[in-house]
Every structure is written in structure tokens, then in C-alpha cells.
Amino acid sequence: MKVKIFLIILAILLLFAPHVFTKEATNSGSQEIEQFKEKLASKVAELQKKEEKATAGLISEIQGKQIKFKTKENETYTAIIDDVLTKYYSLESGSKDEIEFSDLSKNDYIIVSGTTNDKSITANNIYKDVSYTSGSGIINEINQTDYSIKTSSFENETLTIDIESLTKRYVINTKTYELEVIGFSKIKTGDIIDFIYKNVSSNKKELRFSATKIIIIPAEFFNK
Amino acid sequence: MKKETIYAISLGVFLGFLIAFIMILILRPSGQKKTMTSQSKTTIVPKKIKKNFQSLEISSPSDRQIMLSKKVTIRGSVEPGSLIIITSSASEKTIKNKEKNFQIDFPLVLGENVISIQAFVDKTQRTPQIKTLQVFYLEEE
After folding, report:
1. What CA–CA distance (Å, rounded) separates A222 from B125?
2. Residue A149 dihedral angles phi and psi, to the nearest 5°
3. I need a labelling partner for B122 at 20 to 30 A (CA). Which of A2, B43, B97, B111 fits?
4. pTM: predicted TM-score of the whole model, two decimal places
5. Phi and psi (nearest 5°) for A94?
6. What is the value of ipTM here, to two decimals?
């Protein structure tokens, strides 16, 4: 009789044991997931704090306490001004000079830092700055009289780049891969050119720029 | 012990094992998920093998990031042996990368820094891989 009872209890235990163990495993699993979620959330918050971002663009409209500006990607953002908190600076001279709200006007290039909510930024600081654009392409034509270079950009646009006396000109040494200064007469068609220019009027689509810097990758680099 | 009793006990034990086995099968979705994950990972591998070269990736800094010091460390990965050219209005640097990963300190100027990173992976390819970063050095107070 004792053996019979023992076997019946054993059978019952076997019936329920897997369920109990699985439940325990599920419980510990969900606890681990919760802990992981908490860790992930704190890590994201930490990274957000570390990686503060700013947004820059051209002022399209100033209306009351709101400044609308358009980024280089043609996205329109609104900077919301706080009379007490928002501060204004100019970085145009290379140093940080405090300015007034009234010093900002349409077509100024500004950098806005603050809390961003979709396309709206509660501005902590607004910086008036100079905007630069970079590009590159293959040299198609060199004009030795007006010191200009016609290039087909990698975005399939034909651009004319003016080389001024102040334009920094570099070439890549195909042996050492170091940058060296190059004279305008040494630049050839077929070379690749990287250029940087200052944006003077980003409202209309210009196809001629005055370069502040060029880097030449000679055609020989690719033939070796 | 009667025969019927032995049959009943044996049947009970057998049923117990059977139900336990069925429950183990039903309650193991996580195990199935693991299999699916490993399968999906395996499908990525052939894609990598098919690729001719490692594409240019920049892990840091992120685009539009505010920096609080006058230089930034650019970290990324590219096909080993690539010529990397980094330019901005403030500076320019070149490196011939031996390894897949690269890291280079690059100076910043006050305000917006548009940094162009180009990689020429192959001397037969005249079109470089290009990544452009907008990084701000703002001396926040």
C-alpha cells in the first residue's frame, strides 16, 4: 500500500513539476528583461546627455518670439525665444561675442542649441556664424586666364570653382600620401578635386564658387 | 499488489511523462526564437562575403553633435589599405589606413565645422565613398 501511495504522489509530482519549473524560469526571465530595460533606458539617457546636438540654418523669417530657419537639407525649424534665458552670440570673427536679438536678420546663418521637440527648438543659445560647404568632383577644364576650374561633381553637377590668391591649394603626394602645396599651373584635367567654399547666398542655387581650399588627388594615383 | 493497481500506477507515470514532455515542447518559445535569430544572423553572413569591400562607416562623432573641446576624435571603419582624406574649413588630414578601423584627431574651429571624410578604397575606383559630418564647437556655458 505504501508503495502504491508513493507511486501516485510521484506521478502527481511529475505532472506538475515541468509547469512549476517553467514558471520559475519565465519569472526569472521577465525579471532579467526588466533589469535589461532599466539599464538600457539609463544608458540612453546618459548618451543623450553626453551627445547634445545643435541645428543650423539660414533665417527665413523672424516673427515675434519665433525664428524660422532652413537647414542645408531644406528642413524648416522654429527656434522659440525666451526673453530671459535665450542668449545670442556672433562667431563670425572667430571669437564668441555677445550680441542682441535685434542683431539677427533674414538670411543670417545661425546655430541653435536647446531642447528639440520635432522641428521646434526651445533656444538656449543662438550663434550667428559663417557657413561653409564642401564638394568634390573630376576636373574637366582649366582656365589659365581667369584661374577657374570646371568640374563634374560626384552629384552629377557641372560647377565652376574660382581659385583666388588666398585659396589654400594642396595636392596628395602619390608616394607618401602627404599633403603638399601645389601651384595652379600643376593642376591637370582628369585630376580629382575636393573643394570648400564659403556660402555667400544660399537662397539661390549657385553653380560658381570661390574656393577657400582645394585638395587635388592626381590622376596618376589611380593609374598605378 | 493487484495487477490493476500496477497498471494504474504505470499508466499514471506514463501519463505524467507524456504531459511533461508535451508541456516542455509547448513552453519553449524562447528556444525557437533563438533558432530564428541565429538563422537570420546566418543570412547576413553571405551578404558580407558577397561584398567587395568594407564601406566607409563613421561611429563617432554623430552628426550635429556639440563638442566641448577644440578637437574631435573621428572613429570609423573602412576597407584596409584605403586612402582617407578628411577636410574642413579649419584643417585637412590624410591617412593610408592599414587596418579596418581608424581613429584620427581632428581640430575644430569655434562654431560650425563641416567635416568631409572621403575614402578611396581602390585605385581603379575614382569615385570615393564620402561622409559629411556637421559638428559644432560652441564653448557652452
Report:
1. 7
2. -125, 130
3. B43
4. 0.70
5. 100, -10
6. 0.73
